[in-house]
User: Fold this.
Amino acid sequence: MVLAFQSFPIAAFNFFNQYICERITVTYQVKLPPALDDKLTNNEISKISYAPLLFLINGYWMLNPEIFENKWEYIDTTLDSMKSQHFFKFQVNWAFPVLIVGFASFFILITQKIMGAALNKLGYGMQAKEIAVDEDLPNFYKCVKLSQADEVIAEEENMQNKFGLLINDPDTIKELEEVEVPKKSC
Assistant:
């Protein structure tokens, strides 16, 4: 218990340090958001599809009553290895529904891996068509509404006056102060 109280200042400093580093990175390093397509999303979906299966396996292991029994086996000499007594036994108990859902999830994952292309053609996939990213987007400063530009400028001035913080890059504020009424809608 004493160790937990002794490590609290270290943890608090770690969280504070991470907060400050993230703020500095966002403020001074990341000027504009990156142009992203659907590659990141598709990569994450492919990786995270295994998480429910691992969760179900762990849930079955924890709910199985055989894990909590105090079973052990004698060994004759120190050279012999002791068996763990943790063997898979098929039995119907309160962990059985988790096992059924785990097998169903495993079957679905295998089916998606083997027949993914055919399932996509039939409309049972994650993505029916490619997302078209318009790379000919107009310049932000030519499309921003005057009211939105004034709001960003006012927020920046408020943060500088009250807290002494720069939220936006000074070049961004300068560009927003020079914004005119757009000649055509964006």
User: Anything to note?
Assistant: DSSP finds eight helices and no strands in the chain. Helices lie at 2-29, 39-48, 51-63, 65-68, 96-122, 140-143, 146-163, 170-177.
